[in-house]
Amino acid sequence: MDQAIKNRIEQIKKRQVPVEYENTFLGVFPIDWEKKTLSSVSVNNGTYGINAAACNYCEYLPKYIRITDIDNNGNYIDNNAYVNDINSKDYILKTNDIVFARTGASVGKNYLYKEKDGELVYAGFLIKYSIDSEKCNPYIVYANCNSKAYWNWVKIVCSRSGQPGINAEEYSSYKFQVANSKEEQKRIAKILMKWDEAVELQESYITKLEIRKKALMQKLLTVKEEWKDVKFSNAITFFKYKIELQRKNYQEKGIYPIIDQGKNSIAGYTNIYEALNICPSKGLLLFGDHTTEFKFIKNNFVVGGDGVKLFKTKEPYNLNFIYYSLLLNPIIIEGYKRHYGILRNKTLFFPIKNGVVDSNEQKYISDILSISDEEISLQQQKLKKLMLQRKSLQQLLLTGIVRVI
């Protein structure tokens, strides 16, 4: 990083205003930048989407974009939702349109329309703003609506109302600073879009790896003539565990996963819980109530929650092999749900074809799939780094700490 930029950052950290910068109520920005509001750069003051129910696929109908069809990174998720309404043509998104989630836990989430996503009709819980490109670069507006300052604003507005919701009038008043020069705006947008492309390419690569893994699972775990039927209950045993809350010196105890009892999945990680010698060296299999997910817990990890069961395998069954077999067998997932009451009594009675008698073959198969998992994990870590780097760069560019004049 250029030394002048480093010095600028240090000055701002010390609450000093660098030369040719000014301290505004929005923060420290170059003196030649100007304040904008969402309504001032839009051709409208926010229009609400269509109130219509989603329907199944039909080649003659447009796709539907709802709050649930926008991910946390502002991308459209194709959930195969369509809309059949005579007025839908009035709600079709166009270039430079941004839609915002106006209610619920996802309030503040937004999406800048991309032509590659196809024809989209925006739903009633979304508010649309059509950005005037003569007043501001649409991508710069979108980037500002995904900045740290923006999300702090969302929290403040929601706290005032006492419930998660922001209406069109409130969105219209959102203020941000932008470069006065259209050329500088264009350069900033070009840099950030290049990073977006890198992130998308990495996401696409991970998707391909996941597809390859599924194909490997199908090939390696397809039942062969020499395999035999095995009851799941004969291959595993329930594992009792204890959890102790350590409030002193917890930072030295390591990091353990926390189970979301509502979703029965790993919701996050904490370093408050300490395992009391509960995990064998080969790890444990986690199986949550009413879930379609399985988790493989490595050694030295501990989980909490009444809606969670831990298993270890009996000889000659390989834990990883059982884990991958479960992922490939939807029958056992459905059976698990149906036999929820029986599971509380620590029994499960239905056969699945996951029984390879030869333990060496089990290990061979599970090792191949584990390598595939490790490769996916490494690429996911790379994706996280890319996203963090992009986020940091966006902060520097949108505040003018780094200029691209």
What is shown here, in short?
This protein has helices at 3-13, 138-144, 148-161, 168-172, 182-221, 232-235, 319-328, 330-338, 340-344, 359-398; strands at residues 21-24, 27-30, 33-37, 47-48, 54-55, 63-65, 82-83, 97-101, 110-112, 120-122, 126-130, 175-179, 228-231, 236-238, 243-245, 256-260, 265-270, 273-275, 284-288, 294-297, 308-313, 351-355.
Keywords:
4-stranded antiparallel beta sheet, Adenine-n6-DNA-methyltransferase TaqI, Chain A, domain 2, 405 residues, globular, 3 domains, alpha+beta, Helix Hairpins, 22 strands, 10 helices
Task: Give structural notes.
The chain is an alpha+beta fold and 405 residues long. The chain folds into 3 domains: 162 residues, Adenine-n6-DNA-methyltransferase TaqI, Chain A, domain 2; 87 residues, Helix Hairpins; 128 residues, Adenine-n6-DNA-methyltransferase TaqI, Chain A, domain 2. Helix content is 36%, strand content 21%. The chain has 10 helices and 22 strands. Strand 1 and strand 2 form a beta hairpin. Helix 5 runs antiparallel to helix 10. The longest helix is centred in the middle third of the chain and has 40 residues. The two termini are 17 Å apart. About 15% of the residues have low confidence.
SSE layout:
Layout: H1 3-13, E1 21-24, E2 27-30, E3 33-37, E4 47-48, E5 54-55, E6 63-65, E7 82-83, E8 97-101, E9 110-112, E10 120-122, E11 126-130, H2 138-144, H3 148-161, H4 168-172, E12 175-179, H5 182-221, E13 228-231, H6 232-235, E14 236-238, E15 243-245, E16 256-260, E17 265-270, E18 273-275, E19 284-288, E20 294-297, E21 308-313, H7 319-328, H8 330-338, H9 340-344, E22 351-355, H10 359-398
Parallel strand pairs: 6-10
Antiparallel strand pairs: 1-2, 3-12, 4-11, 5-7, 8-9, 8-11, 13-22, 14-21, 15-18, 16-17, 19-20, 19-21
Helix pairs in contact: 5-10
